[in-house]
Amino acid sequence: MKPYSATLVNAFTLITMGLWGYFAAENGSATALIPVGMGLLLLVFSNGVNIGNKKISGVVFVLTLLIVFSLYMPFKGAMEREDTAALVRVLLMIGTGVVALMSFAKAYLKARKTE
Question: Has this prediction a pTM greater than 0.85?
Fold first, then answer.
């Protein structure tokens, strides 16, 4: 998967899972909207990734890395509450983030070999 495609999949997953988490909760916590904001930010930067802008790709990589690490606490909370739906949502967000990171790393290594 190319970094652009992986970024789009990750962004849409963050948006949909964040909205699902927000509307599924009884008292809709605003923190559930953080992934939505991050997904929208990734969408804004995705065009730069598509055209091969190295600086924007670097920003998206770092942002994706931060998102994946920041999902640890929601993962831990879902495990403690034994909330299967929340666990599925968080694991989907982490999974697409890891796939995006791997696609960026693969593209970077390929570019380094051709130089």
Answer: yes
